[in-house]
Amino acid sequence: MKPTFINRRTMLRGLVGGAIASVGLPTLDAMLNGNGTAFADGPPIPVRFITWFFGNGVVLNRWVPGGIRNPITGADYPLSPALAPFANVRDYLSVASGFHNKCAQQITHHEGMTVFSGHTMTDVGQGQGFFSNARGATVDQVVANQIGSLTTIPSVQMGVINQISMADYGTTMHNLSHKGHLAPLPAIKNPLQIFESFASLFTPQNDASKPVRLGVADAVLEDFKALKMRLGKADNIRMDAHMQGLVELETKIKALPPVCMLPGKPTETSDDVNGITAVNSALGDLLAFAFACDVTRVASFLFGGGASEAGFTEIGLTSQHSLSHGHSTNALDPGAPPYMESGDVNDMHKGVVYQMQKLAYLVEKLKSTPDAAGGNLLDNTVIFASSDCSEGFSHDIHDQPMLLIGGGGGRLKHPGIHVRGTNDRNASDVALTAIQAVVPTLTEVGSVDPMYYVNGAPDPAYSKTPLLELKA
Fold first, then answer.
1. Domains of the chain, with CATH numbers?
2. Which residues are paired to 419 by β-bridges?
3. H or E element: which one contains 192?
4. How far is Cα of residue 23 from the mean position of the Cα atoms in its chain?
5. Which of 25-39, 85-99, 151-165, 302-316 has the lowest mean pLDDT?
6. Whole-Å CA distances, 457 to 69, 71, 115, 452
7. Long-range contacts made by residues 32-38, C-beta under 8 angstroms, separation at least 24?
8. Is 300:185 a contact under the CB 8 Å cutoff?
9. What is the bridge-based pairing of β-strands 402-405 and 381-386?
């Protein structure tokens, strides 16, 4: 017998002490379409998208799993020293190394930022210092154009570190999100400001069953049995597990707080006042709330600006930008690829690990937050993280450090893998893979513009080739 369709908002109901008790259901096959990719009553399962930026590159030999001489690829790759902070979310982490950011113009750091758009920057040199403007929309806004109308806020822009480069100008370097040329979306770096914007949209619902949550399992038992008769075998197994879980919870707690709960009002307003860790954590909590409550599904997170001179005083480091300009050991090993292994390498690496710890906080927060559609928020999120160069000493973008994190609603590899690009593979292929995991109909990153042809060929940063190895 074909199982009956069940509306995703179906509740089990019963009476407890004269009050109506309600119990929500897990996501069941009977709620989904034939492919299991969307709710049968219309809306697709929400998949969220985040871009996350950290400045000044990495120490490649301590970033690439196994090292750049002998990289270890596939699903069993070891976490490199720089990626150790992701140990608790290892299964959600995919590493893309060895890919070439093919921005046609290079003026140090600016070209690295273009990995988030696939557009070579424009207006180069038309202002003071190192100057450029973003030429097209960044991938977060490409995604927001497709799904932003489904939520109250199309996208949010967050940032942590206030200190920026005083040598770089234009829109490219100080903004992670752009709607288009000369249309940057500046990051808000004040958690209190973001909290107030969310609070104006959200009023927590009173939980009518809260005083009588104990005993709810018994109250809805008859409804539970009747529903099971309408379901298939797999859904019955899920329902039994769901009810057993509810019974176990009732022995431990008097009430369950709702998932969609606005965090407490933050006291943090600035990293200059409260410190980087405090501001980063407050923003991570707010972003998890925004996703859980479906306030938005798209975000950009500018941890620090491109070529930022910020120091990480919490761990005793001065300017990460200055530290990134250590020296290559190529003179000692001419046959090896260029990588940073002397000068300020230890402090530079320490700063990279520190930044990955801050990203890992957000990732773990998403993993620990249940998703109303089933699983946790990280299961249904894609995070595309990168920097503005591979290593600061060379400003090279031939080995752009890139991470894809999250399950992408089942569209990304899980457990994650390490893919090492070969044959001068385009970094935009990874960006395209990321956005296709959220909006499968998107087919390109960047654009073809004759102005930016190189030797008669289209802008080399443009891509129509997703990285299939990273897809589930």
1. 1-43+206-257 (no CATH), 45-204+261-470 (3.40.720)
2. 96
3. helix 191-199
4. 31
5. 25-39
6. 32, 32, 19, 9
7. 37/409
8. yes
9. antiparallel
Q: What is the maximum alpha-carbon separation in the chain?
A: 82
List phi, psi (to 5°) of 391.
Answer: -140, 140
What's the predicted TM-score (pTM) here?
0.81
Smallest CA-to-CA distance from 216 within 25, 24, 26, 21 is with 21
* DSSP string across 220-273: THHHHHHHHTTS-HHHHHHHHHHHHHHHHHHTT-S----SS-PPPPP----HHH
**Are residues 10 and 242 in contact, defined by beta-carbon separation less than 8 angstroms?**
no
Which 3-state string (H, E, C) describes 383-413?
A: EEEECCCCECCCCCCCCCCEEEECCHHHCEC
Q: List, for residues 235-287, the tens digit of each pLDDT value.
A: 777 767 666 655 654 544 333 345 677 788 999 999 999 999 999 999 999 99
Question: Three-state DSSP class for 135?
Answer: coil
How would you label 294-323 residue by residue, b for 16+ Cβ within 10 Å and e otherwise? Answer: bbbbbbbbbbbbbbbbbbbeeeebebbbbb
- Token pair for 120: 């070579």
Could you give the CA distance from residue 447 to residue 423 in angstroms, rounded to a whole number?
22
From CA 229, how far away is CA 189, in angstroms rounded? 52
- Structure tokens, 151: 């939520």
CB-CB neighbours of 268 under 10 Å: 19
Backbone angles phi, psi at 73, to 5 degrees: -105, 175
The arrangement of strands across the sheet holding 156-159 comes to: 156-159, 298-302, 48-53, 381-386, 402-405, 93-97, 418-420
Burial of 205 (0-12, 13-18, 19+ CB in 10 A): exposed
